[in-house]
Write a structure and sequence with these properties.
- Helices cover 23% and strands 33% of the residues.
- It is an alpha+beta fold.
- It is globular and about 50 Å long.
- The two termini are 32 Å apart.
């Protein structure tokens, strides 16, 4: 199996075991980090294992290779199609000189409330009070306020996911997302790893940006956000 197939399960069983809660054939990130979860395979045993982890009323966000098949005891909350994209070229890793300012800063625990506020507004994907612990996060402040950010999320052998790419609506169209992504990608490549990402298939503006930065389509997984009845 390729490291980016069943990628959440692989992350939680390889490079990110320190963030994992597990039961039998299922694992999930601790709640404060993210709602992402995975299992060895989407079988009856896999869903039973996941049910033990999340409990009644609990939710889990899964990446599935095939469309979600209804399971007893689970309610499907959302199921958008995703694109998994990978950047195997280094051609676009230099900053655009037109956007040399403003300054890119590294974000940390003290910035978490603002990071959550920005991701709640822009909805790049699940983001919790401890998501920033998954890797390097960088941002841009305008007049002291966090205007844009990007960082690292899933990590599997040889690959790190670029995630939480978002810009406040008041500051879009200024190239901030590209600046921040390039900074994150440089950090990933400095470790000898390859950047990849996930994006909703209907997010055409983001997909166009990612293609300009050298990302290409690899697979089309299905996101299934489930709630345990």
């Amino acid at each position: 199996m390729h490291p980016r197939d069943n990628v959440i399960w692989q992350a939680l069983t390889t490079r990110q075991t320190n963030f994992a809660e597990s039961h039998d054939q299922a694992r999930r990130f601790v709640r404060e980090v993210t709602s992402l979860a995975g299992f060895l395979e989407p079988s009856e045993r896999g869903y039973a294992s996941l049910a033990k982890l999340v409990g009644i009323g609990g939710t889990a966000a899964l990446f599935l290779a095939e469309p979600y098949v209804p399971q007893p005891g689970w309610t499907l909350v959302a199921a958008p199609r995703l694109l998994q994209m990978v950047c195997e070229t280094t051609a676009n890793t230099a900053s655009d000189p037109r956007h040399s300012d403003p300054k890119i800063i590294e974000l940390g625990p003290a910035d978490s409330p603002e990071m959550i506020e920005l991701t709640t507004l822009t909805k790049p994907g699940p983001f919790g009070t401890r998501t920033h612990e998954l890797g390097t996060y960088v941002g841009i402040r305008i007049a002291g306020k966090l205007a844009a950010m990007a960082g690292e999320r899933l990590k599997v052998p040889g690959f790190t996911e670029v995630s939480a790419v978002c810009t406040h609506p008041d500051h879009t169209g200024r190239g901030y997302a590209a600046m921040l992504m390039l900074e994150v990608m440089r950090g990933i490549r400095s470790r000898g790893e390859t950047p990849f990402l996930h994006v909703r298939e209907d997010n055409l503006r983001a997909i166009a940006l990612y293609k300009r930065l050298g990302f290409s389509l690899r697979t089309k997984p299905h996101l299934a956000v489930l709630r345990k009845d």
